[in-house]
Design a protein that fits this description.
The protein is an alpha+beta fold. The chain has two domains: 3-67 and 173-344, Aminopeptidase (3-Layer(aba) Sandwich), CATH 3.40.630.10; 70-158, Peptidase M42, domain 2 (Elongation Factor Tu (Ef-tu), domain 3, Beta Barrel), CATH 2.40.30. Helices cover 27% and strands 26% of the residues. It has nine helices and 17 strands. The chain has helices spanning 3-13, 22-32, 142-147, 175-193, 215-224, 245-248, 267-279, 296-301, 328-344; strands spanning 38-41, 47-51, 58-64, 69-75, 80-86, 98-103, 106-112, 135-136, 155-158, 163-165, 169-172, 201-207, 228-236, 258-261, 285-288, 308-316, 324-327. The strands form three sheets. An eight-stranded mixed beta sheet has the order 1-2-12-3-13-16-14-15, sandwiched between helices. The chain has a six-stranded antiparallel barrel with strand order 4-5-8-7-6-9. Strands 10-11-17 form a three-stranded antiparallel beta sheet. Strand 1 (38-41) and strand 2 form a beta hairpin. The longest helix is centred in the middle third of the chain and has 19 residues, at 175-193. The structure holds zinc ion.
């Protein structure tokens, strides 16, 4: 296995819940460290690899490091655990899933239990809701659960790991958006290996706490004060069953990176990216976002009295499930598009509409 692929598996198979991203950030930083001049880390755990730290003109490429998870909220006297969300975790997929409960004593195994089909008779099926799903860690009493190191506030993730489908797709838990962390790290690696001398400061940002409202990006945008920000996140493949193209647009895995239109996206930055895609023959798709993009793009765009920002998304099937699926060629497409955009960008470029 190649070094970058090994990193991808290690990074994706590690748990990095929102607010608890430290172990993932360490893996990411270890990988990117040889490709950058220095790094910044902030109080809440966002990590930034920096190339040309003394340059005046600052360019950000960004992904988010956190994954959705659950919090232990209530332990019953007979040892069952009720949860609340940490990010947009999906109650519908929870029953019968295996989980890792993260404690100071290490990972404790558990399962989301569910009543048997035999006893769910009657016309009305009980659907999983946040109120009725529960985790079983094999204990009979609350005290027994607590002895395992589990307490209110312990974080729970599904245990599913990364695998491949038909050699063409990666599938697994929380590719949203750690695939983004992989892609921006790959951009840094390629710049380094191709000995590209950038005329500006490049800030390779792996932000924390996106899943609960773009919080990490808000913090680091104020710290870096960039001139330009190119964000990458995932977006819905609407070609798989039960999606509505009229509502969610027409995006398909395998058709390339997705370039977004929307008020938060600075038109001149976006058009520059599209020009690069056309020149370098990188297939891309278009998506429109009403009001905000719902990604860290919004956080950067609306920081520091306005930062010229754009969004390049990776199409993904089944978002916020444990089988999030992306096409390998799209991953390569996003890396290439960010890389080629950076290589042609001049220091000091003024993206304003009216000068
Ligand atoms: Zn997400």
């Amino acid at each position: 296995m190649k070094k970058n692929e090994k990193f991808l598996y290690q990074y994706l198979n590690n748990a990095s819940p929102t607010g608890f991203e430290e172990s993932g950030q360490r893996i990411w930083l270890d990988y990117i460290r040889p490709f950058v001049d220095t790094y910044i880390s902030d109080t809440y755990g966002t990590v930034v690899g920096v190339i040309n730290p003394n340059a005046e003109y600052k360019v950000v490429i960004e992904a988010h490091a956190d994954e959705i998870s659950w919090f232990v909220n209530y332990i019953t006297d007979d040892g069952y655990i009720y949860v609340i969300r940490n990010g947009g975790s999906d109650h519908q997929i929870a029953p019968s899933m295996r989980v890792n409960v993260h404690t100071a004593k290490g990972v404790v195994k558990g399962v989301f239990g569910w009543p048997a089909i035999h006893v769910r008779h009657g016309e009305k099926e009980t659907n999983p809701t946040l109120q009725n799903i529960f985790v079983d860690v094999g204990c009979s009493y609350k005290e027994e659960v607590e002895k395992l190191g589990i307490h209110v506030g312990s974080v729970i993730t599904f245990e599913d790991e990364l695998m491949e489908l038909n050699k063409k797709y990666y599938t697994g838990r929380a590719l949203d958006n750690r695939m983004g962390g992989y892609m921006i790290a790959e951009v840094a690696r390629r710049l380094h290996e191709n000995k590209v001398k950038l005329p500006f400061g490049l800030y390779v940002v792996n932000s924390v706490q996106e899943e609960i409202g773009l919080r990490g990006a808000e913090m680091i945008a104020e710290r870096i004060k960039p001139d330009v920000a190119i964000i990458t996140d995932v977006t819905h493949d609407t070609g798989s069953p039960l999606y509505d193209k009229k509502k969610s647009g027409d995006i398909k895995c395998g058709n390339g990176p997705v370039v977004s239109y929307g008020p938060a996206v600075q038109n001149n930055v976006r058009d520059m990216i599209i020009k690069v895609a056309e020149k370098k023959k990188i297939d891309f798709q278009r998506l429109s976002a009403s009001r905000s993009t719902g990604t860290d793009t919004d956080a950067f765009a609306y920081s520091n009295a306005g930062v010229a920002s754009a969004l390049i998304s990776l199409p993904l099937k089944y978002m916020h499930t444990t089988v999030e699926t992306v096409n390998k060629e799209d991953v390569e497409g996003v890396i290439k598009l960010i890389y080629e955009t950076l290589v042609q960008l001049k220091a000091g470029h003024d993206f304003r509409y009216i000068k």
